[in-house]
UniProtKB/TrEMBL annotation:
This is Protein-L-isoaspartate O-methyltransferase. Its EC number is 2.1.1.77. It comes from Arabidopsis thaliana (Mouse-ear cress). It catalyses: [protein]-L-isoaspartate + S-adenosyl-L-methionine = [protein]-L-isoaspartate alpha-methyl ester + S-adenosyl-L-homocysteine. Belongs to the methyltransferase superfamily. L-isoaspartyl/D-aspartyl protein methyltransferase family. The keyword GTP-binding does not apply. NCBIfam families: pimt (TIGR00080). Keywords: Methyltransferase, S-adenosyl-L-methionine, Transferase. The lineage of its organism: Eukaryota, Viridiplantae, Streptophyta, Embryophyta, Tracheophyta.
Amino acid sequence: MRAQVLLCPTITAYGRLYCAPRRLHRYNSSSSSSQFLNLNLSRFSGALFFHMEQFQSGTGSSGKRGMVENLKRYGVISSKRVAQVMEALDRGLFVPVGSSAYVDTPVPIGYNATISAPHMHATCLQLLEDKLHPGMRALDVGSGTGYLTGCFALMVGAEGRVVGVDHIPELVDMSIKNIEKSVAASFLKKGSLSLHVGDGRKGWQEFAPYDAIHVGAAASEIPQPLLDQLKPGGRMVIPLGTYFQELKVIDKNEDGSIKVHTETSVRYVPLTSRVEQLGGF
Ligand code: SAH
């Protein structure tokens, strides 16, 4: 362990009340290091207390409905479409067996990566919602489990095009298997959704330009190929920073200029090389 930060004076994430972990271990290669990454620090620190009992109640359809209901109740989800999509795509099919699928926390998925917390998926879907109408194109960089990639596919439909890219081949294989079990399977079968092994910092030129680009790992700066592959009128959501990170929303104007705003503080695993990631950063 190299560095720690105190976030919340009480509690652990697995107590009765749900709050920020007392410590975040920065880039620690142990198996627990990634379990508190990919979350929104302001939503995750103190103000918001989700009761685990409520949030964990049920499995399958009742579990995911409970998860979405809680995200609505606490003001994370305000969009009906996002609620419908997150209810339709069962997070339980995307987390490792035995993990708490419907609790609002990131879950380690191996390879020093996590599936993002549901509130983070919901936030990013809402930020990108206007660029995820039927027929539009979306790129998910650092697609991991494929959960958000699958949500994109449900939103843009069979006339749209969704591409997920991750640099860990085992995760890409797993994401394909996850999607195959889910309501998004038909998009994969018919070819409007595909998941690829690659360095996401280079984007995925084949289907560019994209209306929506989501980056699921924190970059130190915005990769130029991703800006190039964003359609004029399109939007990118990307966590930026190393230790202190902010979720940036980047809009590309019709004349090609860009406008950037900061949405919130977050904590994500880094957008890096495969060697760095597997070595524990
Ligand atoms: N959004 C996903 C995963 C988030 S974890 C989910 O919720 O399931 C971040 C992911 O980014 C990991 O799967 C990691 O392997 C991937 N990643 C990190 N650097 C990358 C890079 N340079 N290219 C592609 N994927 C990368």
